[in-house]
Automatic annotation (TrEMBL), chains A, B:
GO molecular function: aldehyde-lyase activity
Cofactor: thiamine diphosphate
Xylulose 5-phosphate/Fructose 6-phosphate phosphoketolase C-terminal domain residues: 601-803
GO biological process, one term: carbohydrate metabolic process
Family membership: Belongs to the XFP family.
Gene3D superfamilies associated with the record: 3.40.50.920, 3.40.50.970
Domain Xylulose 5-phosphate/Fructose 6-phosphate phosphoketolase N-terminal: 36-393
Assigned keywords, A-Z: Lyase, Thiamine pyrophosphate
Protein name, entry field: D-xylulose 5-phosphate/D-fructose 6-phosphate phosphoketolase
Pfam family, one: XFP
């Protein structure tokens, strides 16, 4: 770098290291004798048994208790599973059970490294929690044999934790979301502690990196607590982790800054005393913070506990095989002995490894577990066991839904649909003061939902104004955190709403897909009961993001939903305030869906009175007679609006056509439930062909003005008979900061474009129309250009553009 | 919480606060006299002028220099823009120019809060950088008038920073990515410093929260530096920010933990001395770290500088209007006086506000700027100015592409496509040792690209093994960081590759869309030159994620690309190793595209020799004569494979049909360039109808076995004439941990399903076939069930399943 600067480096390079004083921030505890010798032995036996089973699950297809020397024939033909994280998951599980047994703690176990399924499943089997849900997984030889030999095979438990795994509330696939989910789960569950293991791989993700702030949005008076355990084992798939290379000073500074008290758990020779003491300390801190808040004297910026647990990757695996380190290296991440089925050295290493747990001391010859392995660790109360928590069975606490009609708008008025929704949500919150929440990326006011703030507050504990007051609204500028908290809240039996700018909901696209996979498998798993729906509200859509411009225009979340299983995917585009209310009331009642509702926050015409709106929403679509020629009977062309602004332009186009092509018989249809359009039988809401024809005719041209990307609706409709008569326009990735009507013009969704499409379509089917079609569409395009020129000259839309058409 | 725990809260509640000692970690500087009085006056004048212009841009349509008292008629009809962040952006800009002028620093200005466009544009005008690119924005009354009156209006600059804004390399829409982009920009630009403003709203996002770790992947010997400035003004749209409620101790701990030295810049009464001194200190620290590394003696874990700049939100706006605080509150976020056009109090407040900058002291009456406003601040060297940096003009440094044919595989062999690609990438890296990088979320080994590690290393400065050694590979388990770094690297004229598991690339869906918007506007902006392509490699696809299971199955990134503008969106599914090589060599040569390449890492048959592969890739699709009946002449049915495994099943289906329906004339087509399938003219690669018919016939049944979600391909093809003969299957969101072939079975993409589809299709068109169609399809489904039963019984696919069919 050229030139001169005033300051020389300060402090000098050597001193650029962090000061030793930081180490004082580590929580020091005397843990040497937390446990009796017997307790330590109990925990060790439990862990040995669980680790044995977990390792066996990865490798063995027979000889599962090492009844004889292992042979290559005992090894599964395909070795699947991730060993690296298992011993850590087992360690936490054992200690969680111990403390539950001792204190009666209500705890959920939320696991970030879901690839460590063997470590979790082995513990569930030892708990005898599996047999509660799956009669084939009894705690005897039959159940153990199945657990081990069928793991990761078709029909057995899959390689990652999912909704088939009892006690789980989190899909163990895409990393980064466990911590936020844990925060959502404990909200409004004041006695619950979610112990959340975050792997040091997962800790590198953005969603986790910001989820640490979750406590700033959790009121200890009304909600439970999360105890995060960062499992630092140093390696990802093949590279070292960030957290694995950070020293104590760096870690303690980072987590102190996030707002935590940091306790390192790393005495591997005395890990049981270390972890037991650390957990007891942590739960004591949690209790102190909660008691202070619940006695009306909340601690300012309470520093919640976090444990940083350093144990070797794949701890207790062979140290070295073929001259390469296994335990403590990335080689232990997945299958530590990948050639155990053919290589003698590896088979012998496996024999030693498995024998090291001493299975004969742990299991009876009939495959049952010796009582001393589990008795000292497991709680006596079945319902307290990790695998049998009622919160994870997702019994939906139904909402008391207020009458939405009381919030309905007068037909003909100009009303903000989200504004009307805000008044309804206010009532929802009043009636469901501990089972409903709103998670929003700081857009509540902007999206005109702020009426809810009349009866509740923003729950932001770091802000003096809202600290200690609770509140149903969380506004954090992290869509990932909003989504994770909503998932945790929903999967533990409650229900919420995630309002968002349309363009930015796609930030959680893959998170939502992970959630949908969890829900799909739950729906195929007998013991799962109902959950509420996951509800999204998209507003500030592209059609009215002419002010923020191109970057704020992206309706692709529709496509994300369309790819899901039809059994639970729903997309609604209510065309006015009354339809919005009817739709949202339905969503809050409905169970197990993923609902995407898209509407405007701007004042727009109320086309339907409340009863018409309700009927329209139940039907999903209907002919809008008032906007059609002769009430839409026997049309030459069908114009379809899907979405608020798209429908407005369709109605305006029908009015234009009345004026310019008075002989053209135009039918106007609005679709509010997108899923009706798919081919017969493709979705529970898909219209039969007969009903489809009743709305759209059998053979007349149909032009659809669609709110989303045209390609997505085209994909949905593909397979309906006779689509060659259907044309579709929508958002075509054109826009900038401009006027509202210019957005319609540049995306070819304006009334002029719709009217021209109608004429072109009709001309193909009707000689009368075709005579002057070219002239008329040219004239319409001329009008479009005139408006565009006006907009670019005056900076605004021509006067009257958005006046309601008269008929 | 019930029960007893060993430890009582420790330390007690009051002491749970962070210790005062942490405050010592703040960097202390004596900044009282960094600047001369004249220098302070210069900077203040520049800032006043810039702030004046920025505020005027939001409000005025006439009377732009307050030549007379403001009237309601001077106010724009629609007030757009975000004032809150502008004064901060101006402050940094002024000081950046000052230090460039003084030291000749090479600096890029990367702005997170892109909604502060007025603050940036006003500075660019003062720099006289706008007129270099837009002749209408001269630094005189004409240019100023246009800048102010046309801002946020059609034809003027949009409300957010984008590629139309000179000097910008980052779309100013979706928040969270600026910091990661800055890191990418300085890589392999050793003299460059990217000064990156991160807003305290943006700082709440996950992507930013983990991007702070970026320095851990930046070798100061080979790359430049990022100077992050966290702009803490305390409020988002309507809620306080996390960082705004964190105190000095929390912030200094957090950033020390991230690895930084923290300097607070917050003396608002002497902000120029404070910021000037702090920037000089920061640049001195950067130089020290770089010099140490470049002299071969790198500092261990260097603590790079970060500035935390606390200034009031909307600083210098009116203090209070209508009894409500404006400056320093969320009311200043957007338009502080929204009714200035009608309300007298607001108009008067605006008059006072704008007058407070003293425009008459800053501007000459002809609208030119007084020399004393800019002379003391702006660098003399035009190319050093923020708005004229060559890096931001994106002149693509072309790669020296090795001959891919040297890495090609033998026809008939079983070869991993990504393995072959790894050997090619090794050569790419050797030939382009400072202009090509790989950004991967820890999946390089898993995705079989590790051959590159023979000639380069993983660049991970926190790991003792790789520190100080540079390296072309960055593996951080944050897709957001990978994407942001790749964007910054690409938009400054270089080129890279982002390999990812297929299911998790969607994590960056909306980031990619933001990038595409930047690129789209750049392509419509005359002064932009070429950039390289943004290259994605998806492997570990759903079809071979039978081991990790359902959570790892999600091909939706294809749909993300399909929604983009056809001018730059490309999706390739090369069917074998040779096609992979040909495709990737093309992608590295091509300019300005977003390339998505999808292929397998497993050994799969090499169907085409290198010359056939090249021809096939150029054509995008062709009839595979070797797998067809009579070389595919005059077929009864066309079977199409898109994707590696889908194509294998199609070929196996053709072999099955030969056996079971020997009279059926089957043509096999492979599509490697997905975009050829869209309707004529829909995409530059879309086949004409004539060419489409040549491949797929005019009227014969076509069954497409597609790698992605069927709905996405259906959307793409909609509009091709005669689609009712086309059926499409693909990933239908079914899967678990199972065998590879079971994935085909449960998604109906197996050879049996393909063959049955062929027979059903042919039966609809051919009476001969229809006679026994039902019987034959039943038999095929029986075979499918038999295989399924085998898989569930034995846990593996039937022997020989993936043997290459013989013909």
């Amino acid at each position: 770098m050229p030139g001169q600067v005033l300051y020389e480096a300060n402090p000098p390079p050597e001193a650029s290291r962090l000061p030793e004083e930081l180490l004082k921030l580590r929580v020091q505890l005397d843990v040497t004798n937390v446990l009796t010798k017997d307790e330590v032995e109990s925990l060790k036996r439990f862990r040995r048994a669980a680790n044995y089973i977990a390792a066996a699950m990865i490798f063995l297809k027979s000889n599962i208790l090492l009844e004889k020397e292992l042979s290559h024939e005992d090894i599964k033909p395909r070795l699947l599973g991730h060993w690296g994280t298992c011993p850590g998951l087992v360690l936490v599980h054992a200690h969680l059970n111990r403390i539950i047994k001792k204190t009666g703690l209500d705890a959920l176990y939320v696991i970030g490294p879901g690839h460590g399924a063997p470590g979790y499943l082995s513990c569930l089997w030892l708990e005898d929690s599996l047999s509660k849900f799956y009669s084939e997984y009894t705690r005897d030889m039959k159940g153990l044999h199945r657990l081990i030999t069928k793991f990761s095979l078709p029909g057995g438990f899959p390689s990652h934790i999912n909704s088939e795994t009892p006690g789980a509330i989190h899909e163990g696939g895409e990393l980064g979301y466990a911590l936020g989910v844990a925060f959502g789960a404990v909200m409004d569950n004041p006695d619950l502690v979610a112990v959340c293991v975050v792997g040091d791989g997962e800790a590198e993700t953005g969603p986790t990196a910001t989820a640490w702030h979750g406590y700033k949005y959790l009121d200890p008076a009304e909600s439970g607590a999360v105890l995060p355990i960062v499992h630092v084992n140093g390696f990802k798939i093949s590279e070292r982790t960030i957290y694995g290379t950070m020293d104590d000073k760096e870690l303690v500074a980072l987590f102190s800054g996030y707002g935590y008290q940091v306790r390192f758990v790393e005495d591997v020779d005395h890990i049981d005393n270390d972890l037991a003491g650390s957990m007891e300390w942590a739960l004591g801190e949690i209790r102190t913070i909660q008691q202070a808040a619940r006695s009306g004297n909340p601690i300012v910026k309470p520093r919640w506990p976090v444990l940083i647990m350093r144990t070797p990757k794949g701890w207790s695996a062979p140290k070295k095989v073929h001259g390469e380190f296994i335990e403590g290296s990335f080689h232990a991440h997945q299958v530590p002995l990948p050639k155990a089925g053919e290589d003698d050295e590896e088979l012998s290493a496996l024999q030693s490894w498995l024998s090291s747990y001493g299975p004969r001391e742990l299991f009876n010859t009939d495959g049952t577990i010796k009582s001393e392995v589990v008795d000292g660790v497991l709680p006596d109360d079945e319902e307290k066991k990790i695998g049998q928590r009622k919160e994870a069975m997702r019994t939906f606490i139904e909402l008391d839904i207020p009458a939405w009609r009381e919030h309905s708008a007068e037909q003909g008025d100009m009303v903000s649909a989200t504004g009307a929704l805000g008044t309804f949500l206010k009532d929802v919150i009043e009636r469901n003061s501990s089972t409903f929440r709103i998670f929003s990326p700081d857009e509540l006011e902007s999206n005109k939902l702020s009426d809810v703030l009349k009866v509740t507050g923003r729950n932001f504990q770091w802000d003096v104004a809202s600290r200690g007051k609770g509140g149903r609204v969380i506004e954090i500028l992290s869509e990932h955190t909003c989504q994770a908290m909503l998932q945790g809240y929903t999967l533990t039996g409650r229900c919420g709403l995630f309002p968002s700018y349309e363009a930015f909901l796609g930030i959680v696209h893959t998170m939502m897909v992970q959630y949908s996979k969890f829900v799909k498998m739950a729906s195929e798993t007998k013991w799962h009961t109902n959950i509420g729906s996951l509800n999204y509200l998209e507003t500030s859509t592209w059609a009215r993001q002419e002010h923020n411009g191109f970057s704020h225009q992206n309706p692709s979340f529709i496509g994300a939903i369309l790819n899901l299983k039809p059994t639970f995917s729903r997309v609604y585009l209510p065309p006015d305030a009354n339809c919005m209310l009817s739709t949202m009331a339905h969503c809050f009642r409905a169970r197990g869906y993923i609902n995407l509702v898209i509407g405007s926050k701007q004042p727009t015409p109320v086309w339907l009175d409340k009863e018409e709106a309700d009927k329209h929403c139940i039907a999903g679509a209907s002919v809008w007679k008032f906007a059609s020629v002769d009430e839409g009977v026997n049309p030459d062309v069908v114009l379809v609006g899907v979405g608020v602004e798209m429908t407005f332009e369709v109605i305006a186009a029908a009015a234009l056509l009345r004026q310019h092509s008075p002989h053209l018989r135009v039918r106007v249809v609005n679709v509010t439930d997108l899923m009706i359009l798919g081919p017969e039988h493709s979705h529970p809401h898909a219209l039969t062909d007969t009903d489809f024809y009743a709305l759209f005719t059998e053979d007349k041209p149909v032009h659809i003005n669609f709110h989303g990307y045209p390609i997505e609706l085209k994909g949905l409709m593909f397979g309906r008979p006779g689509l060659s008569r259907v044309t579709i326009e929508g958002y075509r990735e054109e826009g900038t900061t401009t006027s509202p009507f210019d957005m319609m013009l540049c995306n070819r969704t304006s009334r002029y474009h719709v009217a021209a499409a109608a004429i072109r379509g009709a001309a193909l089917h009707n000689a009368k129309v075709s005579i002057d079609a070219h002239e008329k569409t040219s004239y319409l395009m001329h009008l479009a250009q005139k408006d565009k020129a006006y907009i670019y000259e005056h900076g605004t839309d021509p006067k009257g553009t958005f006046d309601k058409p008269t008929f």
